[in-house]
Amino acid sequence: MKYVEQVKSILLTFLVLLSIIFTLLIWNYRPEYGLIEETQIEEVMVGEQKELKDVLKPYRLLYRQNGQFFGTVSPSVLNEIYSYFPTWQTNELELINSNEKLSDERMNEVIRANNRITMFFNEEIPFQVFTNLLSFNNDKDLPESSFNRLILDWSTVETNNQLELLFLNTEKRLLFRGYTNLRNTDRFLAEVVKPAEDYSPYVEVERDSLLSLYVSQNPIQSTRYTYLVDYISESLFKSIVFTDPKIVKPNKESEQSVRYTDNTSFMTVDTKNRILNYVYPLAESIAPIKSSKLLSDSFNYINDHGGFTADYRFSSMNIGKHIVDYQLFLHGLPIYSNMTTSRISTTWGENRIFRYRRPFYTIATANEINREREQKELISGEQVIEYLRNTKEYSFKDIDEIVVGYHFTQNEAFVLEPSWFIISNNVFKQISPERTGGITDGLE
């Protein structure tokens, strides 16, 4: 018994030493972790990615000099002007008419003034988005506003090398003004202003208490095109829109309709008209979205997979319903179809896409059937105006725009027929003044 206390002391000392050894082993332990390889997600593309300037394009350039109008829809002329934008810094942007809304006559006067180029856009463009094309010295303080006419006034460039920029919103009746300094005035006048003398002469069609219309003075030489059909595989879009394409199941609903679903979203494919419609119901939202964010989110979603497979241009936006539409153009002219097969449409939901509707065909000039190309002369814009004034079929005061475009029909090939169109409330109507009545199609 006399050794009990000694045994306890020895045992306690042993346990303390053992605890210290285990602690040191834990502190100095370095496990050999295996390398975790990142999962490579294959990027699916249906076309080449584009810049925002490729989509934010006007449908017309109208020049005013020496009391005359000249106009063009040439993509090369537009690209020439856009090439200057990166060198411009817009200064002193201010709202001119802060105390009153502009009248229609006042807005007509703005466009009618000499030495000005007016760029006509189909839809209002938010300033915050346009900063991707044109720099502003007060980017952070730009108003949450927009414009649908950009006017370049070169009246004083020869004296101070300064170009006046006017941003007109004909819907909200607002006019903003800014200035930019030209690095090479002579070059700008030679490459942008001087060539306008060779463009088509235009006339202003004035209307009582309404915005003026602008149409060509002479008959228009155009071309009827026929293209072979070229399609994008619907399986590519299945890989793009669905989170896990492997669990997506197809279901043939009819002879021309197939429905793909992963139980949370679905994609309906119209195999006859080559249109697909993807919907993710859980993302539906009515929460307010700023126009600048709505447009940016829409563009980025489509562009991330190269979805602008041709000359698609921003054409309309319904902020309340979160809808953004892009119209197909060819050779500077819009393409209209009664099946809306010439538009891409997105509806934004809660932090992601809710609806994505688009064609899955492409129009490539390499596929043009040259033997079926036909030259066609359209009557002048003045003759169209005379026809519209005399017919009871259309209400002249309700017309928002008159343009030349292509009427699109699809069979074994794509047929693009040049024609005159009137636009009212974003709905097109093809008109045929050459014969009684005419063909009408609607596009909302």
TrEMBL record:
Keywords: Membrane, Transmembrane, Transmembrane helix. This is Regulatory protein YycH domain-containing protein. The chain crosses the membrane at residues 9-29. Residues 5-444 form the Regulatory protein YycH domain. It holds the Pfam family YycH. It comes from the Bacteria. InterPro entries: YycH, YycH/YycI_2. It comes from Solibacillus faecavium. The lineage of its organism: Bacteria, Bacillati, Bacillota, Bacilli, Bacillales.
